[in-house]
Amino acid sequence: MSQIIRYGQENGEVRKDMPTEYLAKHLEMMYIMEFLVWLLEPEVWDAEKNLGAMVDLFMHGVEDRRE
Prior knowledge:
By secondary structure, the protein is an all-alpha fold. It has helices at residues 2-10, 20-40, 47-62.
């Protein structure tokens, strides 16, 4: 995940004011939370919907909108 985030930072798609590793750890934590929800509620958990929403939430929190 760090390499993907670093690539985004280098291309101006991801903010640079936070370290790559910090952002990667937060994305990993979000993924772990989704995994736990899947374990606890497998009958209502929708992988495409939930993981898509997770990535969307993460990206809109890290986009470099200042440029």
